[in-house]
Amino acid sequence: MSLFDLSGKVAVVTGSSRGIGRAIVERMAEHGAKVVVSSRKAEPCQEVADAINAKFGKGRAIAIAANISSKDQLAHLVEETTQAFGDIHVLVCNAASNPHYGPMNTITDDQFQKTLSNNIISNHWLINLVAPQMIARKDGSIIIVSSVGGLRGSPILGAYCVSKAADFQLARNLAIEFGPHNVRINCIAPGLIRTDFARALWDNPDNLKRSTARTPLGRIGEPDEIAGAAILLASRAGNFMTGQAIVVDGGNTIT
Q: I want to staple 185 with a disulfide (CB 3.0 to 4.6 A). Which of 61, 107, 117, 142 is the partner?
């Protein structure tokens, strides 16, 4: 059996109707998992699930819409998944918000609250909704998609960086709590990736040039290049990793 095989596993990935989340859910299905595609709107989720089922076989994917800002909707996501597929083995907290670009002294209270709530508190909610069944089974992998922004400051993404730094600590703390039950929790820290979420940072040629000037690989990343790290952390290949952050940024943070 391959170290990266996910056959027999059930994976839930938030924010998976596009971008990094979609790449992760598609690759997990390719590696054998049954997957739940989830984001705010049902129709885009269903489109992704239909494409996965067409490629890998009927019943491999289902779509369950959920807004991460609602604890009730996250509870519904877990309940519906369990009814359809059984226990959840892999949880990927990928969905996030960034409603403000600019200095932190220009962010509104509502924007700051939304950033912290959706990027930290929602992860806390969902993890604690899923963790009990993982703990009871003594098996599970939880992945938070954080950001290299959590490793450094930014003149335009300050609140987002604060929230992503908190995700690293959330993973570290829960790794200590969950470790005795063989439940692992890790972060992936992507650099600049070609997604709609990060479009403002790469769509303009000048911005793109600045973003890649000090990146050893000389380019930005693609969503599929984050999916590989998720497969590692979800599978037996990552069985001895917990409380860690894998940086996937083309080398940008080393310069």
A: 142
